[in-house]
C-alpha cells in the first residue's frame, strides 16, 4: 500500500466514504437490497424543482385520481439518512410513498436535498423550503404541470419526513410558522415527524443506554452529526436542537398541528418525546405516538409488518383526516 494514499476517515453504511485528503466516494444505491413493490395502483414521475442545484422530486398519485373530480390532499415525504445518505429513488423510500399514495389517497411529493458532508446544514433545510415553494409556484403558475394541478388540493398540504427528514419537517414548521402569510395559496395543515433526528450536547437517557447493535446506534449518530453540522458548530445548533440556546423560542412561534411518531427502542426516543412534551407545555397541538420495542426507521426496515403497514398508516391517515375536516 502506498504510504501516501489517502486514509478512510468516515464510512456510513457502505454508501459514503470520506478520506483524509478530503475526497468523497458516494454510491447512488443503498447498502441493502429491497425490491420495489409496484402493483400498478399508483403512478409516478420525476420533476426538477431546483435546476441550480440539480435537485428533483418524485410525484405519486393513485391511478384512480384521474377519474375522480375530488382533489387530493398533498403530502410531502422527506427521506432520512442522517443528512448524509438517502434518495427519493431508493427502493425503501419508493415503497413507502406507494403505500402513502394508496392508503391516504393523496398526492405524494418526495423531494431530494443536498447531502453532507459536501453540503452541510443548512443546505438540506433550504432545499426542503425550496421544494415547498415549488408547489406554491405550481399553484399560481399560468402554465402549471397539470399532472399535478388537476388533482392536488393546495389548501390541504402536509409535510412529513423520517429521521433527518423529520428534522427538516420541524424546521419548515418553524419557518412557515413565522412566514404564514407568505405561503398562499397553499396551506400547510399539519406536520408528521417520524423518529425526528434531533441532537444536543447533553446525551439523553435513551442515547446513553441504547444498545450498540441498534440500527441507529450512538456511534452512527455521532458520525452523522460530525459530517452534517456546520463546521465549528455543536449539536446544540439551532437546526439540530429545537431547545438549544441558539434556537427560536417555540412558545412564540405559530405552529400547525404536529404528529410525532417514534419507536420505543429508538435511541432518539427521549428527544422526540421531550420535543412533544415541551410543545404541549407551550399550548401547541401535538400528538405523540410510541411504538413499543420498535427501532429507528422500523417502518422502512420492515415495511410489511403490521406496525408499519397497518397501524402507522392508520395513525397518519387519521391525523390527515382530522386536519382536513377542521
What does this structure look like?
- The protein has 326 residues and is an alpha/beta fold.
- The protein contains nine helices and eleven strands.
- The chain has helices spanning 91-104, 123-140, 146-149, 164-178, 205-209, 218-228, 269-281, 298-301, 306-325; strands spanning 8-12, 16-19, 24-26, 42-50, 55-62, 72-78, 107-111, 152-162, 188-194, 258-263, 286-291.
- It has an eight-stranded mixed β-sheet, with helices on both faces. Strands 1-2-3 form a three-stranded antiparallel β-sheet, with helices on one face.
- It is globular and about 65 Å long.
- The model has no long low-confidence stretch (mean pLDDT 93).
- Residues 76-299 form the Alpha/beta hydrolase fold-3 domain.
- The active site is at 163.
Number of strands: 11
Query: Kindly, what is the distance between the CA atoms of the first and last residues, rounded to a whole number of angstroms?
Result: 65 Å
- Helicity, as a percent range: 25-40%
Described by the principal axes of the CA atoms, the overall outline is globular
Structure class: alpha/beta
Number of helices: 9
List the secondary-structure elements in sequence, H or E.
Answer: EEEEEEHEHHEHEHHEHEHH
Strand-residue fraction?
Answer: 15-25%
The low-pLDDT segments are none
Strand order of the largest sheet: 4-5-7-6-8-9-10-11
**Could you report the average pLDDT, rounded to the nearest whole number?**
93
